[in-house]
Write a structure and sequence with these properties.
6-stranded parallel sheet, 6-stranded mixed sheet, alpha/beta, 10 helices, single chain
Length: 278
């Protein structure tokens, strides 16, 4: 029996904990896989996918900045991937490229199940309109918050993302709005940072007045990169949370798609946190 090959592709990629997670999933479920990191040149994504398929690759996770390219490259795309127009998982079989997006379900599961914070009826601020934000907006809407504001430095991108999701928001009776970052003034129950500001070491992209007392402040980044956002949130009376749980939960969904087995994500999340804390 041959060992199946998987990887995570991105740029940068050295920080990714996906190889540890999927290797642990495989150990706990008895699956025979090898999972590695691949640093992809910014202008060589399609060629890198072809090379991985030629190497016998069965599937890969996609991280920044290639999620939109992954969606465009696919021959078959899931409903949630089509809505997002950004994909974080590719599967290769029968000469076809199948794309999906597990980011949103990973985020919602971590917020509601792991953090114990219900999204239903809440006011949510989603910062960013890139691949990360696009991947999570649909599942956030399906959790039926009362209101979601998408705020971005480039308003047109936020408007485009909101327009694409408007019918889903209407069905869930969720008010959905787009804003320029500088025009966000109201307080929210949940503030989600879906920008690359943490990864780049930049400052928090919004003012603290967006945080209701006791709000959940969630950075999709994890580890040291998210510390600045989390320190800011705690200093202003919010509950800080990084994206480690989201990372593990989206990986568990990907593993299920690839292998047909749901791994014990809760156990692996606890183990990974300990590993990262040294």
């Amino acid at each position: 029996m041959t060992t199946d090959l998987y990887c995570v592709m991105g740029n940068p990629i050295a920080h990714s904990q996906s190889p540890w997670i999927h290797t642990r999933f495989a150990e706990l479920t008895g699956q025979d896989i090898v999972y590695t990191r691949r640093l992809i040149p910014l202008d060589h994504f399609a060629n890198s996918i072809k090379a991985f398929i030629d190497d016998g690759g069965r599937g890969c996770n996609i991280t920044v900045p290639f999620k939109f390219e992954a969606a465009a490259l696919a021959t078959h795309t899931s409903e949630r991937g089509l809505l997002a127009q950004a994909c974080n998982i590719l599967s290769f079989r029968d000469g076809e490229i199948h794309a999906d997006n597990t980011d949103g379900i990973g985020l919602v599961d971590d917020i509601e199940q792991n953090a114990g914070f219900s999204l239903h009826g809440k006011r949510v601020l989603l910062i960013g309109a890139g691949g990360a934000a696009a991947g999570v907006l649909g599942p956030l809407i399906n959790a039926q918050p009362a209101h979601i504001s998408v705020a971005n430095r480039t308003l047109d991108k936020a408007v485009s993302l909101v327009t694409r999701h408007q019918s889903l928001a209407d069905r869930n009776q969720t008010r959905l709005e787009a804003h320029d970052l500088s025009a966000v003034h109201d307080p929210f129950d949940i503030v989600i940072n879906g920008t690359a500001s943490s990864l780049g070491g930049h400052g928090v992209p919004v003012d603290a007045h967006v945080l209701k007392p006791g709000a959940l402040a969630y950075d999709m980044m994890y580890g040291p990169g998210a510390q600045g956002f989390m320190d800011w949130a705690q200093a202003h009376g919010a509950q800080p949370r990084d994206g480690l749980g989201m990372l593990v939960e989206q990986a568990a969904e990907a593993f299920l798609i690839w292998r047909g087995v749901r791994p014990p994500s809760g156990q692996v999340r606890i183990e990974l946190r300990k590993v990262m804390q040294g």
